[in-house]
Design a protein that fits this description.
By secondary structure, this protein is α/β, with parallel strands linked by helices. Helices cover 42% and strands 15% of the residues. Bound molecules: pyridoxal-5'-phosphate.
């Protein structure tokens, strides 16, 4: 008799199908830019986190190739054993300069940076207050830490304040938030969060994954809000606007020194590859030296909002202050249909459905390398497919 211990997997998949929650991958052929090739067809790409178009920039490619020539493909060990290279330190210094922090620490991904940092700085006797829409990696880090985790309503300072009344029952308290919310596109109220953190003797950790390279002069949401000089912990990724792979934490020298000794996802994993480190370092220089890329991205964002407002005023957009713009749809099935129709019309923009988000949507991300014609074609395609917005609104139009 074959064992039945695994039969639940098939049943579980059937349930996923039934709810229209089933997900599959799509292979992109060749380099990914403002357009991509899928199944031999060229599509305009509104699905990428490569906001500045750096992932296929020749300077990053050259940097990755030279580093590979010089150091080889793998780092052969963890940073504390045989994996550390001078290149890692140069990258960390560049991140610290960009973020205007004393120091920084590079992880092998943003996900690892988040779970490692959170689990290192709080534990069983502590409290985490987390925005309900935080990224999966922040939620996983919170669970891994063993701290008591309470979610406050999305960007809701009153809800946070209510939960802060419990703060004194715990040793340490950490407030955790995305800066740009990855599946919504709105910003956390950082100055107010910092005020509350200071008043209640809490630490604050902010995830700048979708803001680095995009907001402020490229340093992110902290810079955008003029909070660079305030005490906080910044985490982020090298894999979005920086076009590479890897994650980082930026903060005080003492914090970074502590993490090198206490963050398990930094200590017990192989150091970032030379190619990824060199590409990220090249990207940081470009972010600092070519502000015109960021300015073009923001012109594209403004143009899309304007065209949508003029041509499709009935669509429900979530509030956005970033390169991410979401269009609400009434159900997972309608979101999938819309994404498929867009793809037929030559536009690649994914349907995001539960359980990733509470309400289904089409998620559009803009790049500096989109042309006005690309944006116009997106809006024309959205007009042609006659999207029905859900009846109950969450968030008003921009
Ligand atoms: C993408 C993302 C991460 C994870 O970063 P990776 O480098 O891709 O692992 C973490 N936080 C947020 C908010 C993200 O959007």
């Amino acid at each position: 008799m074959p064992s039945d211990a695994y039969s639940w997997i098939e049943q579980s998949l059937a349930t996923i199908h039934k709810a229209d929650w089933y997900r599959t991958v799509q292979a992109i052929q060749g380099r990914s830019g403002a357009t991509v090739e899928i199944d031999g067809r060229s599509l305009i790409n509104f699905a990428s986190n490569d906001y500045l178009g750096l992932a296929s920039d020749d300077r990053l490619i050259q940097a990755a190739m030279s580093a590979t020539q010089q150091y080889g493909t793998g780092t052969t060990g963890s940073r504390l054993l045989s994996g550390h290279r001078q290149l890692h330190r140069e990258l960390e210094s560049a991140i610290a300069r960009l973020k205007q922090t004393e120091d920084a620490l590079v992880f092998s991904s943003g996900y690892l940076a988040n779970i490692g940092t959170i689990s290192a700085i709080v534990g069983k006797r502590d409290l985490i207050l987390a925005d309900q829409y935080n990224h999966s990696s922040l939620k996983s880090g919170a669970i891994l830490s063993g701290a008591t985790v309470i979610e406050y309503s999305h960007c809701d300072l009153v809800s946070l304040q209510t939960h802060l009344q419990q703060r004194d029952r715990y040793r340490r308290c950490l407030i955790v938030t995305d800066s740009v919310f990855s599946m919504d596109g709105d910003l956390c109220p950082l100055p107010e969060l910092l005020d509350l953190a200071e008043q209640h003797n809490c630490m604050l950790l902010i995830d700048e994954a979708h803001a680095t390279g995009v907001l402020g002069n490229g340093a992110g949401c902290v810079e955008h809000f003029g909070c660079t000089q305030r005490q906080l912990i910044q985490v982020g990724t090298l894999s979005k606007a920086l076009g590479s792979l890897g994650g980082y934490v930026a903060g005080s020298k003492i914090l970074i020194d502590f993490l090198r000794n206490r963050a398990p996802s930094w200590i017990y994993t192989t150091a970032l590859s030379p190619a990824n480190a060199a590409a990220a370092l090249a990207a940081i220089h470009i972010v600092q030296q070519e502000p015109e890329r960021r300015q073009q991205l923001w012109r594209n964002i403004d143009n899309l909002k304007l065209l949508l407002h003029q041509q499709l005023p009935h669509l429900q957009l979530l509030p956005s202050e970033s390169a991410i713009l979401c269009l609400l749809l009434p159900s997972p099935a309608s979101a999938l249909t819309a994404a498929n129709s867009l793809q037929d019309a030559g536009v690649f923009a994914p349907a995001i459905r539960p359980p990733t988000v509470p309400t289904s949507r089409i998620r559009i991300s803009l790049m500096a390398t989109h042309t006005f014609a690309h944006i116009q074609q997106l809006v024309d395609s959205l007009s042609a497919i006659e999207i029905v917005s859900p009846k109950s609104a969450r968030g008003d139009r921009q």
